[in-house]
Amino acid sequence: MIILTFCGIINKMKDEDFYMNNKIKLKTLSVGYADGETESESSDYDFTDLFYTKNLKVEEIMKPTSYIISGRKGTGKTILAKYVKVKQEEEYKILSSQYINLPDDIKQEEFIERNYNAIKEDEYNLFPKFYILRTIAKLILSKKISLIEHLKYSQENRFFSNIYSYFKYKKAYKYLKHFQNERYPEGNLVLQELKQEASNNIKLSAGTQIGENPLILNSSHENSHSESVSKNFSINTFVTHIEKIEKNILECLKVKPIMLIFDDIDDIKKYIDNDTQVEKFLIGMIKCVKNINSKIYKQNKLNKCIIIIRDDILQTLNASDSNLNKTIIVSEVNLDWIGNKQEDMLINMILHKISQGNSSLKNKKPNEVIRMFFTGKKYSESLSIMKKIIDYGFGRPRDIITYLSIIIRNNKNRYKISHTMIKNAYNEYSNAFWNELQNELSFYYSKEFINSIKNILSSLGKINFSYQEIKTIFENNSAEYRHIDDFDNFMNAMYKFGIIGTYRREEGKKPKASFSYRKDGNAKLNKNDSITVHYGLRPVFNL
User: Residue 498: left (phi > 0), alpha (psi -120 to 50), or beta?
Assistant: First the structure.
């Protein structure tokens, strides 16, 4: 017993010595990129190594009914979809997949179709379906499957059934190829109209009867009567092709599985000015993908279309369409790293990135990484630095990665992250944090409305205040804030997006702040509670 205790003390001393003498500089650490698309395309490392899977979101999105990845900006929606795409391609060699920035891609497709026929207003609800089918068709045509490949990778072991499926695939593939070549020919010229002329010659000789009355020609020579026919052909509208394209696509998808990922669908607002039309488009797109998914899954279980959308926008759409909720309940995979006390998972995710991004750290556990790179004699002291960084954001990977990246860039040759480093990077981070938040708010509010948030909180000059205090400033400067129609809605908007929270003082304890994004506050702002400005925004608001 004494020997075991002695060995334990020795091992602990070795561990302490290792943490104290850690010589891995901060500049060698990799925390990934704040933007998921940039991270997935980086040549610095394989992003799948840094990807965190222990929250089981990969398994969730691969369920047959799941096809919506939702979450706040910066929660990792794009990187999750990219990870699934890569892993599916690796496991199923016959699968073709494509990641699509939907607003740009669908607008380009719309411009192409306008060359043939103007899209009528009542056809716009069908256009998303045509667009998705067209995109699937192009993916099918990107690689033709051989019979040997089909027999090798088919999920069914019935030989004759597979032969028959392949025969139908070839026929459907031929139709899609013909449609593609005929409607979208290569080159600079676009065929607008077809014109066909025909000449019908009728030879007349003696004894020929024309019409009802007999006419006898006594002359021996022949007479010729010529009739010219002109026909004009216009290009069919896309609506006429939907049914047949869908039928042939479904035949192809039994043999050739595909995966489509539509990202940034909420950015369609860049092209549609009317808010009501934006809502209708997004609701229509969600329902359309659900319908298509149910059909293509029956053909092959690998077939899937995925939509990436912000959860706040999804909630807004849900309020506008009573039938959307039942779709969302079974189809949504939400990324929430901090709500309902999930902070530990967020910490482990960041530490996983750090350990996997450096070859000498790959076998280190999260608690070991914390002790190595965050100052503090005790583990709890080192952990407190990490938690402080989390408090300065919205509990999103993007916020933490942004803060750590600034600290590492400014302290390249240091070995540990300290409270002083966090303080020194505070102002720069706060500006980046506010810029990201402005982008998020722009979906709902005007530039003037967003600027008013900064102006009114800056003019208060206080971190903590009452509801009446800020309302007084608003009323005394009503001309400056004339574009704010309803002050209560203004305050609730700030609360909803985490710009402000509430705090309470309990006897013998420090004041405790609550925020909507952490789900430890009320659904709406309580006017009777004391109000506090979010930690990450205080420097940018000069507070």
Answer: left
Closest CA to 456 of 434, 436, 432, 476: 476
Strand, coil or helix: 102: helix
Q: pLDDT per residue over 129-161, tens digit each?
A: 999 999 999 999 999 999 998 888 887 778 888
Q: What share of the chain is helix, strand, coil (3-state, %, to 5)?
A: 55, 10, 35
Dump pLDDT digits (tens) for 443-486. 999 999 999 999 999 999 999 999 999 999 999 998 899 889 89
Task: Tokens for 539, please give them.
Answer: 């420097």
Burial group, residue 60, by CB count within 10 angstroms (0-12, 13-18, 19+): middle
Q: Quick: pLDDT tens for 399-415.
A: 999 999 999 999 999 99
Mean pLDDT throughout 516-523? 82
Confidence (pTM): 0.85
Here the contacts of 42-49 (C-beta below 8 Å, separation 24 or greater) are 45/357, 47/79, 47/82, 47/83, 48/83, 48/86, 48/87, 49/356, 49/357
Asked if 172 contacts 252 with a C-beta cutoff of 8 angstroms, the reply is yes
Residue 258 dihedral angles phi and psi, to the nearest 5° = -135, 160
C-alpha–C-alpha distance, residues 146 and 162, integer Å: 12
Tokens found for residue 354: 């750090």
CB-CB contact of 492 with 508 (8 Å): no
Q: In whole angstroms, what is the distance from residue 397 CA to residue 384 CA?
A: 17
